[in-house]
Amino acid sequence: FEPSATCFGGKPLQGWIGVTATGMVFVSVIKSDGSVETVCDSLGSQPCRQSVADITFTKDGHIVVACADGSFRCPVICYSVKVSVQSDESFTVKSQSYASFYLQATNETNLRDKYSYITHINFVSNQSAEHLLVCAGGNHGSCIEAWELLRKPIELHKLFHPLLIAGQTPPTCLRWCFKATYTHKSVVSAVAVPKLPINLPHKSYNVPGMAIAVAYVDGTIKLLHRLSLQPLSLYKAEGGHRRETEEPANKKVKMCQSSFMTSMQLSHTSCSLIAVDNHYRLYLLKVPPNLGQNLDATGLMVSSIAKVVNLLEYCLMSGYDWWDLLLIVASTSGMVDTVIERLSDEYSRQSPSLQQFIMSKFMSAKTALYRLSPATHHRAVDCHSLLILNAIGTAVRSVIRPTQMTISDKSPADKLTNLCLKNIESDINQIMLNINSVIREFTMESYSLQELHKLNQWIANFSLYLLSLIPMMSSYCKHPGISLLKDNNALSTLRELLIIIKIWGFINPSCLPVFSTSSPKTDTVSVIFKLLTQVWLCNREEGNQTEPDQSLVDLLTTQVVIPKLGHLPNIDCITSRAHSKLGQYLQFEPMCGDQSIFDPDSEDSCFYHEDIVRRIHLGSHPSSDLKQCTRCGSVSMLRNMAKMHVMKLWEQRWVRNCICGAHWKKVKCDVVK
To answer: 551 to each of 79, 221, 426, 530, 545, how far by Cα in Å?
Structure first.
């Protein structure tokens, strides 16, 4: 796809487009300097009234607008809008007529008086102008017509046939062709089209994103095939809403109003539908991915798992959230483990560069899936911890810079990683002597290392916690952290980070982690590294029956205070409530805009005790404003507190997104004295 407007070098510009009721099209573009420029143009030769309209984009960068004045007997007119950027960074908008059509119902005598106005015009996709839906209504019901834009040959008169060169094809033009219609006894109140970018054949019924949602005034919601308009599913909004009105005689009469949807939106994977009715109630409906398939229970399970895995891969690559897919997985028993296994297999087949690119999203998706089942909650804790470990490890490696700018295939951090993988020495002091040549290749300012103390402390505490679980490996397989002791990639990362911390300790001892121990002379970092190496070697060598030194394990567990591994935060958002209820629709209580989301007196106030970015304790009653992740529920201080450039870079990295990849939301906290 080409962008609609580009600046120097082909960089796409951001902006928006709007159509007014007088037939004017307004285009606003945000320039490179941050200023906003708006221009307008008339859609037709002269301004005319427009009642309904919709906008889509084509692959060549053009903008297509379909509009109508609301009258059933008037045509649906389409225009092509092109935005051109001039050399002086100013831009112009030019519109020209596109293919237009009259509704098919206007050609039938028995339907001309049945409908009187057009209620909705919707392109089936916002990335293609090939399919258009038009809804008409009247006192006797409504109809939906599906039209397809095709290139048809122009029929020439027989007098012009001799003028055609032999073998020459006749000229063609774009023409709207009628495909299907669907009628209902009530008027359409809202339409939702799928956002999933797929190329759907006309008779395909077995892929997600094939359905459109249509709501009617009688309270029903129908899922129709988006091309053939065949009905696939039906939902009826139950109950009504009572209100009190006063008559002139001061008598209060209770009137019951039926509920119907006024606005609807399908999720990006088309597995959930969110709707708002005329009484300000919010509905959440699940749309199964195997909609329209006539299969048995086993076949439906296999089909659902395959489609959910494909949609999860789409979310990992596109960046969209997978909250609606969790509704499908949570409502089907025994589906969590199979989906995670299939997703892990697909992830392992990708190239190493792609795996590294989507690793954080992949771990976040596994954490969300493991949360759905109480039996796999320990796995969710492990994935969440591994996500933080990978983020801190990447940040620590990025700090390592070479002393001299030389042309080399590998950076000092890559060389250190390879040497740590090859060297099986368990003595950290000895291994530092062996890699002395690599240590000389990178440098670090002494005053900047102090800021990394909190991250180094978390690495040491995490390693210490894992080693304390060695006696439990054989008997408590479902304890948080046990699976990480069998993960050689995680153990190798910890070994490498401990070596880096040890090196930095010689430059600035204040950056070393601090331990609560009964023997201050014990080199705790060296003991941790030796045990990690022993566990790493046991997992690395198949058939190796040797076990870690029990005396070292006893030394850590008896003389060093073992920190607790941070548990998963409790998510308090709309999607978490949806996972717990799993009903046909969910009604949420309204919340004032200035109401504090965080209640310091609540039982869950202890959740706000650790900053996930800075790894510092905030206490049970934090005094500063916080930001909370909309996906994993983790919190962090809103303002950046770093002074040195090393931690400034670390904090700036998570200004927009959480470590799990989701967006932040601001949380206001009241100071409790």
So the answer is: 80, 68, 15, 12, 17
